[in-house]
Structure formats: C-alpha cells, structure tokens
Amino acid sequence: MSDALIMAGRSLRLSARSPEALLTALMLPVMLMVVFVYLFGGAVDIGTKYVNYVAPGVLLLCAVTGAATTAVTVCQDMAGGIIDRFRSLDVSGPAVLAGHVTASLLRNFVSTLLVIAVALGIGFRPHSSVGAFAAALGVLLLFVAAASWFAAAFGLLVRAPEAANSAMFFLMFFCYASSAFVPVRTMPTWLRGFAAHQPATPVTETIRGLLLGHSHPLPLGAALAWCLGIGLVSMGSAAVLFRRRTA
Amino acid sequence: MTERDGFTRTGPGHLNLGQAGPRAASPGLAVEASGLAKSYRDVRVLAGVDLRVPAGTVFALLGPNGAGKTTTVRILATLVRADDGVARVAGFDVRRDRSQVRRTISLTGQFAALDEMQTGTENLRMMGRLSGLSRTAARQRASELLGQFELTKAAGRRVATYSGGLRRRLDIAASLVGGPSVIFLDEPSTGLDPQSRLAMWRVIEGLAASGVTIFLTTQYLEEADRLAGRIAVLDAGQIIAEGTAAELKRKVAAQRLDLTAASRAAFERLVRHFRGALVHQDDVSLTLGVPTEGDAAEVRALLDQADPDRSLIAGFTVHSASLDDVFLTLTDSAN
Fold first, then answer.
1. Is the CB of B17 inside 8 Å of chain A's CB atoms?
2. Do B142 and B159 fall into the same domain?
C-alpha cells in the first residue's frame, strides 16, 4: 500500500515534467470544450442550450484521454530497465500499477475541475445540489479508475509505448459513439443499439442528469455496474499480464 | 618501535583472523546454484549451470554475448524463474524465499534502471523509500551515496542529461540504497568509454573492499582478471571452466604470439609444427597464433624451435589473449 503511494507520487512528478502529459491533462480539456461549444455547437440543434448538453460529454472525453496516458506510462516502465529495479526492491506488480492508476485519478481530478471552470466560463449552467454534484464527480472518477485500469492492462499487452498510445483512440471511440455529444436518437439506426447500450452512454447520462438536475430516472445502476465490471476485469487482467510479462 | 610492532603483529584484529573463530570457520556461500536450466521456447539458454560463490568475494561470470550470463543473473536475482535446478542466495531459496532474497541483494543490469525525468537525488530518495526507509533516512542515505560515488555535483540534474558513465554510477548507487550484501552487476562496463570503465572498476573495487559479495558478468577477460577472485567461463549455457584468474590463465596462457609466415609452404610447416597448440590460424594472411606467457626468453625459444633456420617466420607480434583465445583453448580441450 505505501509502495503504491510512493509510486503514485513518482508518477505524478513524472507527468508534471512530461510536456505531452501536461498537454493532455491541461490543454486538451480546454481546447475540446471550446471546439465543441463554439465550432460544432452552432450546427447542433437539440432543443436545449448545447453547452449544457455537451459539457458532461467533454468531461467524459477528457477523462478517457487522461486515463489513456496510463497505458503509455505503464508501457514505458515495462520497456525500460526500471521495472527490474522495482521488482528487485520487492515492489509488487499491483503496487506499481496501482501507483499509475492513482496518479491518473489525481491528474484527472485536476483536469475535471479545469473543464468545469471553463464550461462555467462559457455559459454552462448546472442545476444541481451539492450532493448531486459530488455524486456526479464520484461517478466520473469511478469511470476514470475503470478506464485507467483498462489502459494499464492495455499498456502491459502491447510492447511499444507508441502502440500503447492507441488505447486513447479506442477509449475515445466509445465516447464519440455514445450520447456524450449528440443524442442517440439522431444516429443512424444500425448504430443506435450499440450506442445506447455501451458503457459511455449510461455514464454520460448519469453525470448529465446529476449536473442538470434531471427529474427522469437516471441509469445510475448501469453506469456503476459498467465501471465496476470494467475496473475489476481490467485489474485482474493487468495482474495476470504483469505476471506473464515478468515470468 | 614497540608501538609499530604491537600494531602490526599483535593487534587484536590480526590475531582473531588467524584463529578458528566463528567468523573464520563459516565464511558461508553467498551464491549456490546447481543444475540451473532455462529455455525460451525452443532455445536452450542454460543447460545445467552450477555455481558456488563464497561470501565476501568477487566472482565473475565470463562469456560471450548469448552465453546465458544475463539469464543466470536474473534467475539468481529472482526476476526470472528457472525451468530446472535450485539456487540459494545468502542462504535463501530464490524460488521459495523470493522476498528475503530481494531484501539481501541488488541488481544493476545493462540498461540503467532510473527515471530519466527525475534528478539523481530524487531517484535515490525514491529507491530508498521503496526499500523501506523513512523519508529522513532515505534523504540521508541518498546524500551519503551521492558523496560516495562522487555524484554530488550532478545530483540536482535530471538523469536525462547524464553521460553514460555518470548514469551507470548512479544506477549502481541506486541499487545500494537498501544496503545489500550480495551485489549483482550485469556487464557493468559494457558500452563505457575507457575512462569511465576505469572509474567503474574503481567503484567496484571500493565495493569489494567493504566486504560485500559481488557477482559480475563480463565479456572481457581483462575485466574479470582485474576485479574477480574467481572466474567461471560460461559458453552456450554451460560452465566450461572455473577457477582463479591465475588458474584459468595457466590453462589458456595470458598472451598470444602471432607469427606471420614467409610463404605458404612455410605457413604449412609452421602449422604442422605447432599442431594442437594453435589458437589462431588464418590461411589467407598466413598468420597463426600460439599461447605464450609473453616473456622474452619463452618467445625467443618458441621462435627458435619453430624456425631453426630463421627462414619460415617473416614477423611476429605478442598481445594479450582475447576472450576468443580463451574459448578456443577451452573448447578445444573439452573436445
């Protein structure tokens, strides 16, 4: 446990010194928010103020891009000599990985606050109690944890850090093909079934509902089940992959 | 000069070493391996390796690329599991008592195990914390090691800016934060320029003087010779020779005498003359090499015996035996 915290501290320090990680964590969220609201927002008519609809979606997109960097950092550790040093210091594989995931959570917490601040600055008006706001943040961070464990497993599966980067595209695809940016009903029929039932949609709907104070029932159960399911399966796979990589 | 006499002859330390006290009676083995075998898919990397390294000594595993040196070290350091065989490090089984072994050893591999984007100090403190030191103790240990390895000047810089020699030194320092008693160094001087290699040798000699056990691998006979008390030669996954540097050299000779024949006919006569003793033979350049101790009398005698009429040999050179010579001689005697 204490090893995992030391590893998390290390991972945070390394991302603070890596220009790409900083860019992904701080610049990208701001850029995406601006792009969606000002560039695409004018063309999207969904009956409500688009910034209110899309802000939760951008939160989710930033969360997955942030979580995806875990794949790269894990992969870099495995490719270099440092993993041998950690192992010969008797640091367990799960502690190394948990350090990366913890750092990812903290990074994403900061960029989430940044996205919310930017959204508020350009007209996002949530109607939410403090409790609902905290709940939305909680669901988002649970989603980040699940996506980070998924990315960690992905980073163990591929050998090159460049390949690990593709975890981002994989995760982003799930965001785009969900109700994060446009309602599922506006999509082609063949895509609707997938879009409505894949993890990103219930997570987005739950966060959006909590932030905007929707009165209709939220798919909270589905969102939590997806996050826990993906998180636990990824965690297990990561442990197995780590053992296999270091056998 | 009673003071000096008393100091050198009857000092308590000297007396104790001479007696059969508990320390002298059981030096113990730091590394003990028998029948280590490892294959990666169809490739047999180790085919039954036996090793015995007494505690407090420097041991070198000498061999060419692909001989299985790194695999052996990684098995002993618990990073790789052997398919077969048993190994104990500092008395602990590498398979069953993995954590105890890890707490006793350190490993420095061929690739620096450091964070490029952290400074020297930060790397050392992190390793210290991971090996269980408190924040204060880790800080203290880091500055101690930085001083000991003459890294204080570079301590505040990120490792990415370090030269190869500096990096290797920090890497070894980082491996020592936990105070290991058995130190594994996998090719510690490979890829270093001659000056850094010398500096590295001095570092290793300093470590050896502190009483820890050092297990190093190398491709260079010269390096094993300078640093290690005992040397094992590993070839194609098997130990083909073991002994002190002097014993090995007796087998292979430290020097090589290369002769250039005056003509093809002379070359053939020389080859016939030396027959089994040849460690080098090049039919194109008409040169052949034989082992020698390298002193003038022996070389003169060799030349006179091979070429009594002084017509066959056009020229000669004497140089240090290379690893190739050692292998040729050892594999020849094995066949």
1. no
2. yes
